Structure formats: C-alpha cells, structure tokens
Amino acid sequence: MNEDELRADIVKYGALLYGRGLAHGSAGNLSVRLDDGTILVTPTNSSLGFLTAEQISKVSIDGTHIAGDPPSKEAFFHLAVYEERPAAKAIVHLHSTHAVAVSCLCHADSFDVLPPLTAYQIMRIGRLPLVPYYRPGDRKLAEAVRGLAGEHKAMLLANHGPIVSGSSLQKAVHAYEELEETAKLFFLVGDRPLSRLTCEAIADLNATFPG
Ligand SMILES: O=C(O)[C@@H](O)C(=O)COP(=O)(O)O
Ligand SMILES: [Zn+2]
Fold first, then answer.
1. Which of 22, 65, 67, 144 is most open to solvent, judged by the fewest CB atoms within 10 Å of its CB?
2. Do the interacting molecules here have an ipTM over 0.90?
C-alpha cells in the first residue's frame, strides 16, 4: 500500500474502532510504518472517530515530526515496537474498557496476565505481559515497552491499556479486538473453576499458526 492508501486506512480503522466503542473521546493512537522507516501516527488529542487523511502526522525513525498535525505523545513507544519487531507494520493502542480493567488488577505473574482461554486468543495475542506504570508520553514508558516488544506482539500497559502490533493495520485491529473480547470473557467467567488450554494445546497452536 502507498502512503495515501495507508492514510486512508488509518481514517477507516479509527472510525471503525470508535464506532464499535473500543475508542472513546481522544484516547488511543494508531500508527503504520512506511517502507522508508518513517511512521504515520494519529495526532495528539485527536478523536480516532473523526480523523482526516491530511492531519495524520508523519514522524521519522528518531521521532522528529515531519508533516501533519503534532503527533501522538506516544509516538516513541510506537517507534520502539517497530525497532524491536521488524515484521510489524502497524500498531493499535486504545483504552477499551475490559482490557483496561485487566490492566488495573494485581497480577501474580506480570509476564502472563490473562489465562489461556481460547485458541483464537493464543493465535492472535499470545502471552500478554504487563508493562509497569509510567505517565503517558514518558520516554521511560517507551523504554519499558521496548524491553518486552521483541517477544510479544501484544502488551498491556499497567493502569492504562493495550498495545497490539501486526503485519498490517487490519491484522493489528483484529488482534486488538480479540484481546478486548478475551478480557471480557475473563471477567465473565470470574471465579468459576477455569478450564485452561493445556501447554500441549498452546504449543500445537503456536506450531500450526506461527506469527
Ligand atoms: O493515555 C494517553 O494519554 C495516551 O496513551 C493516549 O492514549 C492518547 O494520547 P495522544 O495520542 O497523545 O492523544
Ligand atoms: Zn493511552
């Protein structure tokens, strides 16, 4: 896809996520990586439901603002994920209700904060680690994200929300939706005895559906 098509994609998926109630107010940010390593990212304080192609920000690999409106204050964690995941071409960060609720819990294992419930969860999200809390926009947040990004296509920012990457914006959006639905299931099953997917089942899924 060329830059114009990718800009149109960000507008389309921003509106879709907003329409589905996964994005609200001016929370969240989306980005895609261009072939030259620069990224297109949603402008800071913009509503994902009402973007225009022209206002979307362009940012260089070192975080310099090149074009469009001022970029998301989280452009640095987007850049950190792209650096650590060469195959990633798009990133979705939102504050969807159930995933944020999981991010506000205490977790026995901060490297694995959701039990393995369904095959699709394993295929689209994998093991979900919690990134320690830092103020939004803090460069320390971007560095903490960098530390986990190589091993995880999805991460959960403590007391904040998920970051999900994919090889296209469509794939990142689908994975994000799977994460929100998994978080919903997690609360729905609550304290009832849980039938977790076995290690063998997870290994089989990972071998059959790599990436
Ligand atoms: O939670 C925050 O403040 C950011 O992570 C966010 O979601 C929106 O920030 P901008 O992209 O700078 O609007
Ligand atoms: Zn946020």
1. 67
2. yes
Taking residue 184's Cβ as centre, other Cβ atoms within 10 Å add up to 15
- The residues near 102 (Cβ < 8 Å, ≥ 6 apart) are 113, 114, 156, 183, 186
pTM over 0.90: yes
Contact 26 CB / ligand 1 (< 6 Å): yes
| pLDDT number for residue 206 | 95
Contact 66, 60 (CB under 8 A): yes
pLDDT tens, position by position, 172-194: 999 999 999 999 999 999 999 99
Element (H, E) at 66: strand 65-67
CATH 1.20.140.10 fits 3-208, yes or no: no
Any atom of ligand 1 within 6 Å of the Cβ of 96: no
- Closest residue to atom 3 of ligand 1, CA basis: 136
